[in-house]
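This part of the workshop introduces the protein records we will be handling. A record pairs a protein's sequence with a compact description of its fold. Comparing a sequence with its tokens is the quickest way to learn the format. The record below serves as our worked example for the rest of this section:
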Amino acid sequence: MQGDSSKRSRSILLDCGNGTLHALARHRVDWEAIDVVLITHYHGDHVGDLVALLAAWRFQGRTRPLTLLGPSDFRDFLEALASVHGPWVSEPGFPLQVVALGPNGSWSDAQDSLRVESFPTPHTDVSICVRLSGSWGTLGYTGDTGPSDSVAGFLTGCDVLLAECALTDPPRFEGHLTPASLVSLAAQARPSLLVVTHVYPPTEPHLIVEEVGRRWGGRVEAAHDGMTLTISPGDVDVDRPARGE
């Protein structure tokens, strides 16, 4: 994400499920330049590659600082990982700042080019959604969440809303969104662009997008590996790479 031209850009990774490290390399993302990793909760599809990333940076001889942002008990979680994998998890050999955002927290980088705010979601006891903002605009990310007017209120007015839609209607269980509840969220939050992610198989993301688009009426896209969003005040440009690139 690019802030003011007078300030250094920041690279932030939102969650890191299994396979993230290889996917970053496959899509030619400069994973060594990541400054911030944000974890919304501790299910494997959101945190499974955190240890792999820390190990890769350690083996590469990283020297640049890294900030880890997470839920209220994030430090306890990292200590638990260290008890299994070794003390290097919390002391990887490069400057590491650990910030427990909690359910209503905030963090800004030293250049004040990136601000992160958090809010609780009805998914786990500690799960959070986040708003990222800067001079470039605002991005909201639901993490995993069940239906919630409070979450919708927190995410209102984002240029881009990256939202999960794991289930179909009627939902088989609680704790996730369906097309119907995603339409309700979008209608309240009113993003300039809604990007749908975390769609469970066998449902195809494009089918969810078609249904949500018909019922909501706003601009909606399916998340795609390698997709690039360029956010600027009042505008969002989407680059859709061909599958397999």
Q: What stands out?
A: The chain is about 25% helix and 25% strand.
